[in-house]
């Protein structure tokens, strides 16, 4: 009888050890999935932020370059690039909300990271009021769009249908293979970066100075 009790105890012990091992493995797996999701959230937030700030600075350079020719087509093109990025940003944030809305920890992480990014965005937009070009009739819209976008970001209210209209270029639309190739290259680059993040399960968040330095580099390239 004692032998039976002893054998039963050993069996239970092995069973408990196996359960603990499985639990540890599952906990580790869950933590890895969580880390990967957090890294992807950070990537999309800060890459999007960098793109917007780059285009704000690029537009600033365009306005300065054509200050004596306020109706130049490059100004409208620069405006539309920024508008497209604002619309894309809105879509990205809207999609993230849908992806993580049923995951409390990740939606909280998303909101916190947005708040950090917003502090950077707010300073950039508020410090670029001088971008208003009084010589150009349609230039009022860009500062207005930026302020409206900033308000959305502050409230974290992103809706897919909220899109800013593009400005009329008075040009006939035509297929541009160079633009298509750039888009394909850009998509491929994003895919590669996402794959790297998923492998490493981490993303290095750039500091505000680094973001602004990259954006200023855009002006140097333009000049």
In words, what does this structure look like?
The chain is mainly alpha-helical and 223 residues long. It has one domain. Helices cover 76% and strands 0% of the residues. It is built from 6 helices and no strands. The protein is elongated. The mean pLDDT is 81.
Give, in order, the helices and strands: HHHHHH
Shape: elongated
| First and last CA, distance | 91 Å
Multimer state: single chain
Q: Structural class, from helix and strand content?
A: mainly alpha
What is the C-alpha radius of gyration, as a whole number of Å? 25 Å
Low-confidence stretches: none
Average predicted confidence as pLDDT: 81
Percentage of residues assigned to helices: over 70%
Major sheet size, sense and barrel closure: none
- Number of discrete domains: 1
Enumerate how many helices there are, as a single number. 6
| Beta-strand fraction estimate | under 5%
Number of strands: 0
């Amino acid at each position: 009888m004692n032998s039976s009790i002893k054998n039963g105890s050993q069996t239970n012990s092995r069973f408990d050890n196996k359960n603990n091992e499985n639990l540890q493995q599952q906990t580790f797996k869950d933590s890895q999935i969580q880390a990967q999701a957090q890294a992807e959230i950070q990537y999309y937030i800060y890459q999007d932020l960098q793109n917007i700030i780059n285009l704000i600075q690029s537009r600033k350079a365009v306005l300065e370059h054509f200050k004596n020719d306020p109706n130049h087509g490059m100004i409208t093109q620069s405006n539309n690039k920024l508008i497209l990025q604002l619309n894309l940003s809105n879509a990205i944030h809207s999609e993230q909300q849908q992806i993580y809305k049923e995951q409390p920890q990740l939606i909280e992480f998303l909101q916190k990271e947005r708040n950090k990014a917003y502090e950077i965005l707010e300073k950039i937009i508020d410090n670029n009021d001088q971008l208003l070009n009084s010589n150009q009739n349609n230039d009022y819209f860009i500062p207005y769009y930026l302020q409206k976008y900033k308000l959305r970001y502050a409230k974290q209210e992103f809706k897919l249908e909220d899109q800013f209209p593009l400005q009329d270029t008075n040009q006939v639309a035509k297929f541009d293979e160079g633009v298509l190739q750039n888009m394909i290259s850009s998509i491929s680059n994003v895919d590669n970066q996402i794959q790297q993040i998923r492998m490493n399960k981490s993303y290095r968040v750039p500091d505000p100075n680094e973001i602004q330095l990259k954006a200023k580099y855009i002006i140097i390239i333009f000049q």
